[in-house]
Design goal:
- By secondary structure, the protein is α/β, with parallel strands linked by helices.
- Helices cover 39% and strands 19% of the residues.
- It contains eleven helices and twelve strands.
- The strands form two sheets. A six-stranded mixed β-sheet has the order 2-1-3-5-6-4.
- The longest helix has 21 residues.
- The radius of gyration is 19 Å and the shape is globular.
Length: 299
């Protein structure tokens, strides 16, 4: 029940109507019996500054950030964590006495499935492994940081815009993270896939409602090694076309659901300053996606 005492949390982005964050956060808050609600806020790029001021005025306790604000919010914050500075992107904002502070829980969320005992491969030493990341936006930056934390020997970024790729590479030159980074245009993708131990889709290609699309041509995906890990940050549809095709070729598939759950749980712990029920958050999303799939199949 929402009351005058109910504390506000939320997520900002544009578009935002597809976000499943409210489902899992509100399930956790209800489970904990807390007088909080988590809301989706559609905020266009040009409205970010006024939205942040509005949040302060109405007493919002904290919020997540998704496309297109993960980088543009940085100058609007009074404090940014060292990890978020290294990544160059913020996905979680919380209140302090000095004002809004930002950090990045996407890195933690990305790494969780790769470190899970349930993963069908055991990679204890990443020092000889090669990561290939599709995309060069804010999400890709968190993946680079995660791969650096794993200790990957090489990290390859694939994009379509040479100027953006050059800027992306330059931005990591003085990073405190151990990043051995290379950038490539899309025409080099086939050769890179054959070398990849970890292939990550950090683009929105294949996201609902264009779930029939894949960022990788099926012929190029034939180059993937059996036992390589294909990781898609997209969580709906589940699985994506990219993951289905990779799995058919012997790759180990990881979808974006667990990353979503883990980054969200980390953010909620920052806001509440207490442990949160990760299993409840995961189950809520799994149930929702299952119901969604059943509805689509019936129609």
């Amino acid at each position: 029940m929402i009351k005058g005492t109910t504390k506000l949390l939320g997520v900002i982005g544009h578009p935002i109507e597809h976000s499943l964050s409210p489902l899992m956060h509100n399930a956790a808050l209800s489970h904990l019996g807390l007088d909080y609600v988590y809301l989706p806020f559609p905020v266009k790029s040009g409205d970010l500054k006024v939205a942040i001021s509005g949040f302060e005025a109405v007493g919002v306790m904290g919020f997540n950030i998704t496309i297109p604000h993960k980088q543009t919010i940085l100058p609007l914050l009074s404090e940014v964590s060292p990890l978020a500075i290294a990544v160059g992107a913020v996905n979680t904002v919380y209140r302090t006495k000095k004002g809004w502070a930002g950090t990045n829980t996407d890195v933690q969320g990305f790494l969780a499935p790769l470190r899970s005992p349930s993963l069908q491969t055991s990679i204890d030493d990443w020092s000889q492994k090669i990561a290939v990341i599709l995309g060069s936006g804010g999400a890709a930056r968190a993946i680079v940081a995660g791969c650096a934390e794993l200790g990957c020997a090489q990290i390859h970024i694939v994009g379509r815009d040479r100027a953006k790729l050059a800027a992306f590479e330059q931005s990591w030159r003085n990073s405190p993270l151990p990043v051995n980074l290379f950038t490539h245009t899309w025409d080099n993708l086939g050769k890179l896939i054959s070398q990849a131990d970890l292939l990550v889709n950090a683009t929105p290609i294949g996201m609902y409602p264009q779930g029939e699309n894949s960022p990788v041509d099926v012929n190029l995906l034939d180059q993937i090694s059996a036992g390589a890990i294909a990781y898609d940050l997209i969580y709906t549809p589940n699985p994506t076309e990219f993951l289905k095709q990779a799995q058919e070729r012997g790759a180990i598939a990881i979808d974006g659901l667990e990353m979503l759950v883990q980054q969200g749980a980390a953010a909620l712990e920052i806001w509440l300053q207490k442990p949160v029920p990760i299993d409840v958050m995961r189950h809520t999303l799994q149930q929702h996606l299952s119901n969604q799939t059943n509805t689509i199949s019936l129609n």
